[in-house]
């Protein structure tokens, strides 16, 4: 269902944070869900984070608890009783 949205979820690393930007349709509305940072090479690096976006459908996540590596970010969320899911690769470097 995430493919039907106007834009993809964007994740970028900036100033010690990960910035997660949901599509603009999600702005200003209640969104619940979670992000799983899955590291195939090392399960000890896996992290799960509660999705808590602001009014612009963005969330900042501190990189403090993350180790550098290759991840697949699995994002699951609900917006207006509709379920969404997407995955994307992410390389965390520090």
Give an overview in words.
The chain is mainly beta and 94 residues long. It contains no helices and 7 strands. The chain has strands at 10-14, 17-21, 31-38, 47-50, 58-62, 69-79, 82-92. The strands form 2 sheets. It has a 4-stranded antiparallel beta sheet, with no helix packed on it. Strands 1-2-5 form a 3-stranded antiparallel beta sheet, with no helix packed on it. It is globular, with a radius of gyration of 13 Å.
Question: What structural keywords apply?
Answer:
94 residues, mainly beta, four-stranded antiparallel beta sheet, three-stranded antiparallel beta sheet, 52% strand
Mean pLDDT figure: 91
Question: Looking at the structure, what is the overall shape?
Answer: globular
Return Rg in Å. 13 Å
Strand and helix order = EEEEEEE
Class computed from helices, strands and strand pairing: mainly beta
Distance between the termini: 33 Å
Task: Specify the oligomeric state.
Answer: single chain
Number of helices: 0
Helix content: under 10%
Spans of at least 5 consecutive residues whose pLDDT stays below 50 are: none
Beta content comes to over 45%
In total, the number of strands is 7
